[in-house]
Design a protein that fits this description.
The protein is α/β, with parallel strands linked by helices. Among the domains are: 82 residues, uronate isomerase, domain 2, chain A, CATH 1.10.2020; 197 residues, Metal-dependent hydrolases (TIM Barrel), CATH 3.20.20. Helices cover 48% and strands 8% of the residues. It contains 18 helices and eleven strands. The strands form three sheets. The chain has a six-stranded parallel beta sheet with strand order 3-5-6-7-10-11. The protein has a three-stranded parallel beta sheet with strand order 1-2-4. Helix 15 links the parallel strand 10 and strand 11. Helix 6 packs across helix 17.
Length: 438
């Protein structure tokens, strides 16, 4: 355990022992936005450009246009750096300092306008290319990282045993009424998509191509007002035909088309034995004046009750679920308690801070079978973020296990570590179809 990781280590002896052991183990990351062709950051702008930093700096007073697309990478870095002192109390700043010290050899304990030039120079790895990707992978002890692949991604040019394809179907559900999406689907499958039968055949072709290339999951992010319902091809035959042929459709017909596409995709997940990751809750563009990536929020009115028919109908499909609203965690735990095929999945976006993670994790540990606990995913856009995020989670997991299991139930630390192994390794590997031999 290096000095950076030591800074995360709990003070409690049992928690520290668990944490130190977890820090030695490899990372299995079941959800990210990594680009497998350029997985690690080549410059500091690709680190500070992560929406957490631009939106927090904007919240602290930075004008949004200072990090706009017309700015140079170096000017964007310096714009955010001016506001980093105001962010030193945040979990996100701690990730940043961890990255700077672990990967870039940065020796200061704070990042600000005075030393940002030094950090920018240390973070310049443009010339290193794939060698830098490999170095970050090795330093982070990564085992596998799941991707987020559009349905028409060529799925070529990378090692799919390390970077695992995952079929992201947002556009196939939420934007299928747009001619551009239909044209993409035709081009990707070579099939005529003019009616429901053609749509289903094209969607099936997408699934088959992804399965051949090693995809282990299907995933979608859904708005809070989306309500799944069974596909009714006869009812929506005309709206589907109009939409797929580029003709205008009414808003209610768009809703019918979305529900039909979603239900059909769930059927294909059942056919292909793929887990269907549901990420529920974001409302896009709530704050139009925000920075890119910092305009979306959640709606507390979302309820998993709307999804009960889906869970009941597809009892053979595993649904790893993330909810954007922090106070939706209790409902998610209850649904996972009752439904065998519902699993709480990580701690997403606005819930990905220690206070919320600790609360939610403790409830899951107390309420759910050990075999249903899916600990964490990075949601990272660059490899450098995976290690600090997982380090944060490992510390919280170690503290929770020490409190709940070691002190609370008299377990030994090796027994608590066995549960940690399930949470971070065995359960996600089993769910997503990996063997347990490693």
């Amino acid at each position: 355990m290096n000095s950076i990781t030591t800074n995360y280590a709990p003070r409690d002896a049992a928690a520290r022992e668990i944490f130190v052991e977890l820090a030695r183990r490899p990372i299995f990351d079941p959800h990210s936005h990594i680009d497998p062709h350029r997985p690690a950051a080549r410059c500091l702008d690709e680190i500070l450009g992560y929406h957490y930093y631009t939106e927090l700096a904007h919240s602290a007073g930075m004008p949004a246009d200072r990090v706009g697309p017309d700015s140079t990478p170096s000017s964007r870095v310096r714009a955010v750096a001016e506001y980093l002192p105001a962010l030193e109390n945040t979990a996100q700043y701690r990730w940043l300092l961890h990255i700077a010290q672990t990967f870039f050899g940065f020796e200061h304990n704070s990042i600000n306008a005075a030393n940002i030039g030094e950090l920018e120079a240390r973070a310049d790895h443009e010339a290193d290319g794939a060698a830098w990707d490999a170095a970050v992978w090795s330093r982070s002890k990564l085992d596998a990282v799941f991707l987020t692949n559009e349905f028409d991604d060529p799925l070529s040019g990378w090692d799919t045993s390390k970077y695992i394809p995952c079929l992201r179907v947002d556009d196939l559900v939420l934007k299928l009424h747009l001619p551009a999406t239909v044209e993409r689907l035709r081009a990707a499958t070579g099939l005529d998509v003019g009616d429901f039968n053609g749509l289903r055949a094209a969607l099936a072709a997408v699934f088959e191509r992804f399965k051949v290339r090693g995809a282990r999951a299907c995933a979608i992010s859904l708005p809070p007002d989306f309500v799944p319902s069974p596909a009714e091809p006869r009812r929506v035959v005309t709206p589907i035909r109009r939409a797929l042929r580029g003709l205008p459709v009414r808003p209610d017909e768009v809703d019918d088309l979305r529900r039909t596409a979603f239900w059909t995709i769930a059927e294909l997940c059942s056919d292909h034995k793929l887990p269907f990751d549901l990420m529920i809750g974001p409302i896009r563009g709530v704050y139009p004046a925000g920075v890119a990536g910092g305009r979306d929020l959640f709606d507390r009115r979302v309820s998993l009750h709307d999804y009960a028919p889906l869970f009941n109908h597809f009892a053979d499909v595993a649904f790893p679920i993330s909810t954007l609203t922090p106070d939706a965690a209790a409902e998610l735990t209850a649904y996972a308690w009752i439904f065998p095929n519902v699993l709480p999945f990580g701690h997403w976006w606005y819930s990905n801070i220690p206070a919320f993670i600790a609360h939610d994790l403790r409830a899951r540990l107390q309420a759910l079978p050990a075999t249903k606990l899916l600990g964490y995913y990075s949601d990272a856009y660059k490899l450098e973020f995976i290690l600090p995020k997982f380090t944060m989670y490992r510390a919280i997991l170690a503290e929770s296990l020490a409190e709940e299991c070691v002190r609370g139930r008299g377990w030994s630390t090796p027994r608590a570590l066995e549960l940690a192994q399930l949470v971070l390794w065995d359960n996600p590997r089993r769910l997503f179809g990996f063997d347990q031999s490693k």
